[in-house]
Design brief:
alpha+beta; about 10% strand; binds iron/sulfur cluster; three-stranded antiparallel beta sheet
Length: about 350
Amino acid sequence: MNSASVGRFAEDVVAWQKKHGRNSLPWQNTRDPYRVWLSEIMLQQTQVATVLAYYARFLQRFPAVANLASAQPDEVLALWSGLGYYSRARNMHRCAQDVVALHGGQFPRSAQLLQTLPGIGPSTAAAIASFCFSERVAIMDGNVKRVLTRVLAFSKDLASTKNEKQLLAVANNLLPKKNLKQTMPRYTQGVMDLGATVCTSRKPRCLVCPVQGICESYAEGDPEKYPFKTKKLKRSVEHLSLLWARKPDGSVWLERRPEAGIWGGLYCLPAFTSEEALLTSLPERSRSRVQYLPPFKHVLTHKDMHLSPVIAGFSASQNMSSIGAIERGRWFLPGEWQLTGLPAPIRKLLEAEPDQ
Ligand code: SF4
Protein backbone atom coordinates (compact mmCIF):
# COMPACT_ATOMS: atom_id res chain seq x y z
CA MET A 1 0.00 0.00 0.00
CA ASN A 2 1.49 3.37 -0.94
CA SER A 3 1.78 6.21 1.58
CA ALA A 4 -1.18 8.14 0.13
CA SER A 5 -3.41 5.10 0.65
CA VAL A 6 -2.07 4.61 4.19
CA GLY A 7 -3.23 8.14 5.07
CA ARG A 8 -6.60 7.66 3.38
CA PHE A 9 -7.51 4.41 5.09
CA ALA A 10 -8.19 5.89 8.55
CA GLU A 11 -9.94 8.95 7.10
CA ASP A 12 -12.28 6.81 4.98
CA VAL A 13 -13.06 4.46 7.87
CA VAL A 14 -13.81 7.37 10.24
CA ALA A 15 -16.08 9.14 7.73
CA TRP A 16 -17.92 5.90 6.93
CA GLN A 17 -18.42 4.97 10.60
CA LYS A 18 -20.04 8.33 11.31
CA LYS A 19 -22.62 7.80 8.59
CA HIS A 20 -23.06 4.04 8.23
CA GLY A 21 -21.50 2.33 11.24
CA ARG A 22 -23.23 0.97 14.33
CA ASN A 23 -23.86 3.91 16.63
CA SER A 24 -26.77 2.88 18.82
CA LEU A 25 -25.61 -0.20 20.72
CA PRO A 26 -26.01 0.31 24.47
CA TRP A 27 -22.25 0.19 25.14
CA GLN A 28 -21.49 2.84 22.55
CA ASN A 29 -21.45 6.60 23.02
CA THR A 30 -19.81 6.17 26.38
CA ARG A 31 -16.29 6.65 27.59
CA ASP A 32 -16.92 4.72 30.77
CA PRO A 33 -14.25 1.98 30.83
CA TYR A 34 -16.42 -0.23 33.05
CA ARG A 35 -19.17 -0.40 30.42
CA VAL A 36 -16.77 -0.77 27.51
CA TRP A 37 -14.86 -3.52 29.32
CA LEU A 38 -18.06 -5.38 30.23
CA SER A 39 -19.27 -5.34 26.63
CA GLU A 40 -15.87 -6.33 25.21
CA ILE A 41 -15.62 -9.37 27.48
CA MET A 42 -19.20 -10.43 26.73
CA LEU A 43 -18.72 -9.97 22.98
CA GLN A 44 -15.77 -12.37 22.88
CA GLN A 45 -17.14 -15.53 21.21
CA THR A 46 -20.73 -14.27 21.55
CA GLN A 47 -23.07 -12.52 19.09
CA VAL A 48 -24.28 -8.96 19.70
CA ALA A 49 -27.94 -10.09 19.77
CA THR A 50 -27.23 -12.49 22.66
CA VAL A 51 -25.07 -10.04 24.59
CA LEU A 52 -27.72 -7.27 24.67
CA ALA A 53 -29.91 -8.88 27.35
CA TYR A 54 -26.95 -10.08 29.49
CA TYR A 55 -25.31 -6.66 29.34
CA ALA A 56 -28.51 -4.95 30.54
CA ARG A 57 -28.99 -7.45 33.40
CA PHE A 58 -25.36 -7.12 34.53
CA LEU A 59 -25.49 -3.35 34.58
CA GLN A 60 -28.75 -3.33 36.44
CA ARG A 61 -27.36 -5.61 39.13
CA PHE A 62 -23.80 -4.21 39.10
CA PRO A 63 -24.00 -0.56 38.00
CA ALA A 64 -20.34 0.11 38.82
CA VAL A 65 -17.13 -1.86 39.07
CA ALA A 66 -17.21 -1.71 42.89
CA ASN A 67 -20.61 -3.47 42.94
CA LEU A 68 -19.24 -6.28 40.81
CA ALA A 69 -16.07 -6.54 42.89
CA SER A 70 -18.05 -7.09 46.09
CA ALA A 71 -20.49 -9.64 44.62
CA GLN A 72 -20.49 -13.32 45.55
CA PRO A 73 -18.85 -15.51 42.82
CA ASP A 74 -22.01 -17.62 42.59
CA GLU A 75 -24.14 -14.61 41.81
CA VAL A 76 -21.78 -13.51 39.02
CA LEU A 77 -21.80 -17.01 37.52
CA ALA A 78 -25.59 -17.21 37.79
CA LEU A 79 -25.98 -13.96 35.84
CA TRP A 80 -23.48 -15.23 33.27
CA SER A 81 -25.16 -18.61 32.97
CA GLY A 82 -25.88 -19.39 29.30
CA LEU A 83 -23.17 -17.13 27.82
CA GLY A 84 -20.60 -19.97 27.87
CA TYR A 85 -16.82 -19.76 28.33
CA TYR A 86 -17.21 -19.35 32.08
CA SER A 87 -13.56 -18.51 32.61
CA ARG A 88 -14.55 -15.09 31.23
CA ALA A 89 -16.96 -14.55 34.14
CA ARG A 90 -14.44 -15.68 36.75
CA ASN A 91 -11.70 -13.49 35.29
CA MET A 92 -14.11 -10.59 35.06
CA HIS A 93 -14.93 -10.88 38.74
CA ARG A 94 -11.21 -11.03 39.64
CA CYS A 95 -10.50 -8.10 37.35
CA ALA A 96 -13.17 -5.97 39.08
CA GLN A 97 -11.62 -6.86 42.45
CA ASP A 98 -8.13 -5.88 41.20
CA VAL A 99 -9.42 -2.57 39.80
CA VAL A 100 -10.82 -1.76 43.23
CA ALA A 101 -7.92 -3.13 45.31
CA LEU A 102 -4.96 -2.07 43.15
CA HIS A 103 -6.19 0.93 41.18
CA GLY A 104 -8.52 2.72 43.59
CA GLY A 105 -11.64 1.71 41.65
CA GLN A 106 -10.48 3.33 38.38
CA PHE A 107 -9.46 1.36 35.30
CA PRO A 108 -5.85 2.12 34.21
CA ARG A 109 -5.72 4.52 31.25
CA SER A 110 -3.21 2.76 28.97
CA ALA A 111 -3.48 -0.47 26.96
CA GLN A 112 -0.21 -1.65 28.47
CA LEU A 113 -1.43 -1.34 32.06
CA LEU A 114 -4.90 -2.65 31.26
CA GLN A 115 -3.28 -5.88 30.09
CA THR A 116 -1.96 -6.53 33.57
CA LEU A 117 -5.54 -7.19 34.74
CA PRO A 118 -7.08 -10.70 34.72
CA GLY A 119 -8.89 -11.63 31.49
CA ILE A 120 -7.82 -8.50 29.57
CA GLY A 121 -5.75 -9.46 26.53
CA PRO A 122 -4.10 -7.12 24.01
CA SER A 123 -7.23 -6.63 21.88
CA THR A 124 -9.59 -5.88 24.77
CA ALA A 125 -6.99 -3.56 26.31
CA ALA A 126 -6.64 -1.73 22.99
CA ALA A 127 -10.42 -1.41 22.66
CA ILE A 128 -10.81 0.09 26.14
CA ALA A 129 -7.81 2.40 25.74
CA SER A 130 -8.87 3.69 22.32
CA PHE A 131 -12.60 4.02 23.09
CA CYS A 132 -12.26 5.57 26.52
CA PHE A 133 -8.89 7.32 26.52
CA SER A 134 -8.29 7.85 22.75
CA GLU A 135 -4.97 6.04 22.92
CA ARG A 136 -3.40 5.45 19.52
CA VAL A 137 -3.37 1.66 19.68
CA ALA A 138 -4.69 -0.97 17.24
CA ILE A 139 -7.19 -3.66 18.17
CA MET A 140 -6.67 -7.00 16.45
CA ASP A 141 -9.79 -9.10 16.83
CA GLY A 142 -10.96 -11.52 14.13
CA ASN A 143 -13.07 -8.94 12.26
CA VAL A 144 -10.26 -6.41 12.18
CA LYS A 145 -7.67 -8.91 11.02
CA ARG A 146 -9.95 -9.91 8.17
CA VAL A 147 -10.38 -6.30 7.01
CA LEU A 148 -6.67 -5.51 7.26
CA THR A 149 -5.38 -8.67 5.57
CA ARG A 150 -7.78 -7.99 2.69
CA VAL A 151 -7.04 -4.29 2.33
CA LEU A 152 -3.33 -5.04 2.35
CA ALA A 153 -3.53 -8.41 0.51
CA PHE A 154 -1.48 -9.70 3.44
CA SER A 155 -0.90 -13.31 2.40
CA LYS A 156 1.38 -14.54 5.19
CA ASP A 157 0.17 -17.34 7.47
CA LEU A 158 -1.35 -15.87 10.64
CA ALA A 159 -0.68 -19.13 12.47
CA SER A 160 2.85 -17.77 12.88
CA THR A 161 3.42 -15.28 15.71
CA LYS A 162 6.02 -13.50 13.63
CA ASN A 163 3.48 -12.80 10.89
CA GLU A 164 0.86 -11.72 13.43
CA LYS A 165 3.35 -9.21 14.82
CA GLN A 166 4.08 -7.94 11.34
CA LEU A 167 0.36 -7.40 10.72
CA LEU A 168 0.09 -5.56 14.04
CA ALA A 169 2.95 -3.25 13.05
CA VAL A 170 1.15 -2.40 9.79
CA ALA A 171 -2.13 -1.95 11.69
CA ASN A 172 -0.45 0.57 14.00
CA ASN A 173 0.83 2.44 10.97
CA LEU A 174 -2.73 2.74 9.60
CA LEU A 175 -4.15 4.40 12.75
CA PRO A 176 -5.39 8.00 12.62
CA LYS A 177 -2.68 10.60 13.15
CA LYS A 178 -4.72 13.75 13.84
CA ASN A 179 -7.42 14.86 16.21
CA LEU A 180 -7.09 11.62 18.18
CA LYS A 181 -9.67 12.46 20.86
CA GLN A 182 -12.44 12.15 18.28
CA THR A 183 -10.90 9.98 15.60
CA MET A 184 -9.47 7.10 17.66
CA PRO A 185 -12.79 5.90 19.17
CA ARG A 186 -14.55 6.30 15.84
CA TYR A 187 -11.79 4.59 13.87
CA THR A 188 -11.71 1.62 16.27
CA GLN A 189 -15.48 1.26 16.07
CA GLY A 190 -15.37 1.76 12.29
CA VAL A 191 -12.87 -0.94 11.54
CA MET A 192 -14.82 -3.36 13.77
CA ASP A 193 -18.11 -2.43 12.08
CA LEU A 194 -16.58 -2.81 8.65
CA GLY A 195 -15.53 -6.38 9.49
CA ALA A 196 -18.89 -7.23 11.05
CA THR A 197 -21.21 -5.73 8.44
CA VAL A 198 -19.36 -5.20 5.11
CA CYS A 199 -16.12 -7.14 4.92
CA THR A 200 -17.75 -10.35 6.13
CA SER A 201 -15.92 -13.67 5.97
CA ARG A 202 -18.11 -14.90 3.09
CA LYS A 203 -19.38 -12.72 0.28
CA PRO A 204 -17.90 -9.37 1.38
CA ARG A 205 -19.98 -6.42 0.16
CA CYS A 206 -17.14 -4.74 -1.71
CA LEU A 207 -19.46 -2.61 -3.81
CA VAL A 208 -20.56 -0.59 -0.77
CA CYS A 209 -17.21 -0.65 0.99
CA PRO A 210 -15.65 2.72 1.84
CA VAL A 211 -12.08 1.47 1.26
CA GLN A 212 -12.71 -0.40 -1.95
CA GLY A 213 -10.58 2.12 -3.89
CA ILE A 214 -7.45 1.24 -1.92
CA CYS A 215 -8.22 -2.43 -1.19
CA GLU A 216 -5.56 -4.62 -2.72
CA SER A 217 -7.46 -7.91 -2.45
CA TYR A 218 -10.41 -6.32 -4.27
CA ALA A 219 -8.04 -5.24 -7.04
CA GLU A 220 -6.72 -8.81 -7.20
CA GLY A 221 -10.30 -10.10 -7.53
CA ASP A 222 -10.42 -12.70 -4.69
CA PRO A 223 -10.79 -11.12 -1.23
CA GLU A 224 -12.10 -14.32 0.35
CA LYS A 225 -8.70 -15.98 0.19
CA TYR A 226 -7.66 -13.68 3.07
CA PRO A 227 -6.91 -14.01 5.94
CA PHE A 228 -4.65 -17.02 5.49
CA LYS A 229 -4.19 -19.20 8.55
CA THR A 230 -3.20 -22.86 8.53
CA LYS A 231 -3.95 -23.86 12.11
CA LYS A 232 -7.30 -25.57 12.30
CA LEU A 233 -9.32 -26.15 15.42
CA LYS A 234 -9.17 -29.78 16.44
CA ARG A 235 -12.59 -30.89 17.62
CA SER A 236 -12.88 -33.57 20.23
CA VAL A 237 -15.74 -35.70 21.51
CA GLU A 238 -16.64 -36.40 25.12
CA HIS A 239 -19.28 -38.78 26.49
CA LEU A 240 -20.64 -38.11 29.97
CA SER A 241 -23.30 -39.85 32.04
CA LEU A 242 -25.14 -37.39 34.25
CA LEU A 243 -26.60 -38.45 37.57
CA TRP A 244 -29.86 -36.67 38.27
CA ALA A 245 -30.44 -37.63 41.89
CA ARG A 246 -33.73 -36.35 43.23
CA LYS A 247 -35.88 -36.64 46.31
CA PRO A 248 -39.67 -36.88 46.64
CA ASP A 249 -39.90 -33.12 47.35
CA GLY A 250 -38.22 -32.43 43.96
CA SER A 251 -34.79 -31.55 45.43
CA VAL A 252 -31.89 -32.21 43.10
CA TRP A 253 -28.27 -32.93 43.99
CA LEU A 254 -25.79 -30.55 42.34
CA GLU A 255 -22.08 -30.34 42.86
CA ARG A 256 -19.61 -27.64 41.99
CA ARG A 257 -17.29 -28.35 39.05
CA PRO A 258 -13.55 -27.85 39.55
CA GLU A 259 -12.36 -24.33 38.68
CA ALA A 260 -10.27 -25.51 35.75
CA GLY A 261 -11.84 -27.15 32.72
CA ILE A 262 -15.26 -27.23 31.21
CA TRP A 263 -18.06 -25.47 33.13
CA GLY A 264 -15.45 -24.55 35.75
CA GLY A 265 -16.93 -23.31 39.04
CA LEU A 266 -20.55 -23.91 38.00
CA TYR A 267 -22.95 -26.24 39.76
CA CYS A 268 -23.76 -29.35 37.73
CA LEU A 269 -25.29 -32.80 37.97
CA PRO A 270 -22.53 -35.25 38.97
CA ALA A 271 -20.86 -36.35 35.72
CA PHE A 272 -19.29 -39.77 35.08
CA THR A 273 -17.22 -41.00 32.18
CA SER A 274 -19.44 -44.08 31.74
CA GLU A 275 -22.87 -45.38 32.70
CA GLU A 276 -21.19 -48.19 34.59
CA ALA A 277 -19.24 -45.74 36.76
CA LEU A 278 -22.45 -43.85 37.46
CA LEU A 279 -24.37 -46.97 38.48
CA THR A 280 -21.52 -48.23 40.65
CA SER A 281 -21.59 -44.96 42.57
CA LEU A 282 -25.22 -45.46 43.58
CA PRO A 283 -26.42 -47.30 46.67
CA GLU A 284 -27.49 -50.83 45.72
CA ARG A 285 -31.19 -50.24 46.31
CA SER A 286 -31.25 -47.19 44.01
CA ARG A 287 -29.52 -48.98 41.12
CA SER A 288 -32.46 -51.10 39.98
CA ARG A 289 -34.86 -48.16 40.00
CA VAL A 290 -33.03 -45.70 37.76
CA GLN A 291 -34.72 -44.06 34.79
CA TYR A 292 -32.76 -43.46 31.57
CA LEU A 293 -33.53 -40.25 29.70
CA PRO A 294 -32.75 -39.85 25.98
CA PRO A 295 -29.09 -38.88 25.40
CA PHE A 296 -28.48 -35.51 23.74
CA LYS A 297 -25.61 -33.64 22.15
CA HIS A 298 -24.25 -30.29 23.33
CA VAL A 299 -21.91 -28.56 20.90
CA LEU A 300 -19.05 -26.36 22.13
CA THR A 301 -16.50 -24.59 19.93
CA HIS A 302 -13.83 -27.26 20.39
CA LYS A 303 -15.89 -30.19 21.49
CA ASP A 304 -19.04 -32.24 20.96
CA MET A 305 -20.43 -33.43 24.28
CA HIS A 306 -22.75 -36.44 24.30
CA LEU A 307 -24.72 -36.32 27.52
CA SER A 308 -26.74 -39.25 28.90
CA PRO A 309 -28.90 -38.33 31.92
CA VAL A 310 -29.95 -40.99 34.42
CA ILE A 311 -32.55 -40.23 37.08
CA ALA A 312 -32.16 -41.93 40.45
CA GLY A 313 -34.77 -41.55 43.16
CA PHE A 314 -33.53 -40.95 46.71
CA SER A 315 -35.60 -41.10 49.88
CA ALA A 316 -36.13 -37.97 51.96
CA SER A 317 -33.52 -39.04 54.52
CA GLN A 318 -30.95 -40.60 52.19
CA ASN A 319 -27.67 -38.75 51.75
CA MET A 320 -25.14 -38.70 48.93
CA SER A 321 -22.00 -39.83 50.73
CA SER A 322 -21.93 -42.95 48.57
CA ILE A 323 -20.97 -41.09 45.41
CA GLY A 324 -17.87 -39.67 47.05
CA ALA A 325 -18.27 -36.02 46.11
CA ILE A 326 -20.28 -34.89 49.06
CA GLU A 327 -17.92 -32.07 50.01
CA ARG A 328 -18.54 -30.28 46.72
CA GLY A 329 -22.29 -30.63 46.49
CA ARG A 330 -25.63 -30.24 48.22
CA TRP A 331 -29.36 -30.72 47.69
CA PHE A 332 -31.07 -27.82 45.94
CA LEU A 333 -34.78 -27.32 46.50
CA PRO A 334 -37.04 -26.64 43.51
CA GLY A 335 -36.90 -22.89 42.88
CA GLU A 336 -33.41 -22.72 44.39
CA TRP A 337 -31.30 -24.12 41.55
CA GLN A 338 -32.86 -21.66 39.09
CA LEU A 339 -30.94 -18.88 40.88
CA THR A 340 -27.63 -20.73 40.69
CA GLY A 341 -24.94 -20.67 37.98
CA LEU A 342 -25.54 -23.82 35.93
CA PRO A 343 -24.24 -24.84 32.48
CA ALA A 344 -26.88 -24.05 29.85
CA PRO A 345 -27.62 -27.69 28.84
CA ILE A 346 -28.03 -28.74 32.48
CA ARG A 347 -30.44 -25.87 33.14
CA LYS A 348 -32.46 -26.84 30.06
CA LEU A 349 -32.54 -30.46 31.16
CA LEU A 350 -33.74 -29.63 34.68
CA GLU A 351 -36.36 -27.23 33.33
CA ALA A 352 -37.87 -30.05 31.27
CA GLU A 353 -38.15 -32.26 34.36
CA PRO A 354 -40.09 -35.48 33.67
CA ASP A 355 -42.70 -36.66 36.20
CA GLN A 356 -41.51 -38.42 39.32
FE1 SF4 B 1 -13.30 -6.07 2.36
FE2 SF4 B 1 -14.14 -5.80 -0.16
FE3 SF4 B 1 -13.88 -3.69 1.40
FE4 SF4 B 1 -11.74 -4.94 0.51
S1 SF4 B 1 -13.25 -3.87 -0.72
S2 SF4 B 1 -12.10 -4.23 2.60
S3 SF4 B 1 -12.44 -7.04 0.56
S4 SF4 B 1 -15.31 -5.37 1.68
